[in-house]
């Protein structure tokens, strides 16, 4: 999961496929004194995730060395997600609802993990992860909610911290703006979202992919 794509203009951390990163609340959080989380904010965050039936957003992904790639994220309940990278990146991260795949067309390889083995499970299956393993983290901004999700009994699954801003037009009144994740090898990845769109029709075929390992293998 830690390989670097040698022929890409910008190396890509495979951590996105297996673990998204933990960090102190990032970017837009002002460096003010911590503000106590409001009562019920964890429930509100879980409700906001559960309220997303479908979503598309532009994303930027930054690894721990500061290198950034961009693309389009598509999400569909239950458990489906696709990270379609910019055109010069022959890489795809996709979940079909059961497994998460990292597809590397540059070297014709596919890596697979059960969703449950990734902090992305907190995003893809909030019924299972967020309420049970999540806790609120003070942000210094009353309009920002930060939720850290980790399973203390399974540290190999990594940690994800989800950051929401209050937005009345988003499902549940909260909009997921970014997350940071730390995998079991302490590789950090930050994902930021913008231009959110909700409720559009998304075919399940969006979450299939062409298997690069040979014509005898069917598309998944």
The total of helices stands at 4
Largest sheet: 11 strands, antiparallel
Strand composition percent? 35-45%
Distance between the termini: 20 Å
Topology as a string of helices (H) and strands (E)? HHEEEEEEHHEEEEE
Low-confidence regions: 1-36
Shape, principal axes of CA atoms: globular
Task: Please characterize this protein's 3D structure.
With 220 residues, the chain is mainly beta. It has helices spanning 15-18, 41-50, 121-124, 130-133; strands at 54-63, 68-76, 80-85, 91-96, 99-104, 109-114, 134-137, 144-150, 159-166, 174-182, 188-198. The chain is globular. Residues 1-36 have low confidence and may be disordered.
Descriptive tags:
220 residues; mainly beta; outer membrane lipoprotein receptor (LolB), chain A; 4 helices
Quick summary:
This protein is 10% helix and 37% strand. The chain has 220 residues and is mainly beta.
Helix/strand layout:
Layout lengths: L14 H4 L22 H10 L3 E10 L4 E9 L3 E6 L5 E6 L2 E6 L4 E6 L6 H4 L5 H4 E4 L6 E7 L8 E8 L7 E9 L5 E11 L22
Antiparallel strand pairs: 1-2, 1-11, 2-3, 3-4, 4-5, 5-6, 7-8, 8-9, 9-10, 10-11
């Amino acid at each position: 999961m830690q390989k670097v794509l040698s022929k890409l203009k910008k190396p890509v951390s495979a951590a996105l496929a297996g673990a998204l990163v933990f960090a102190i609340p990032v970017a837009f959080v002002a460096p003010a004194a911590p503000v106590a989380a409001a009562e019920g904010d964890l429930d509100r965050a879980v409700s906001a995730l559960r309220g997303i039936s479908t979503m598309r957003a532009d994303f930027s992904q930054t690894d721990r060395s500061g290198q950034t790639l961009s693309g389009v994220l598509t999400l569909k309940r239950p458990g489906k997600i696709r990270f379609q990278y910019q055109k010069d990146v022959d890489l795809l991260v996709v979940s079909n609802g059961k497994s998460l795949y990292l597809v590397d067309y540059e070297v014709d390889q596919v890596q697979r993990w059960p969703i449950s083995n990734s902090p992305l499970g907190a995003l893809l299956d909030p019924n299972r992860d967020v309420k049970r393993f999540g806790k609120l983290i003070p942000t210094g901004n009353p309009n920002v909610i930060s939720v850290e999700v980790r399973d203390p009994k399974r540290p190999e699954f990594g940690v994800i911290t989800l950051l929401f801003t209050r937005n009345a037009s988003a499902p549940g009144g909260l909009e997921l703006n970014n997350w940071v994740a730390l995998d079991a090898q302490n590789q950090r990845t930050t994902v930021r979202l913008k231009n959110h769109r909700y409720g559009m029709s998304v075919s399940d075929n969006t979450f299939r992919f062409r298997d690069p390992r040979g014509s005898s293998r069917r598309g998944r």
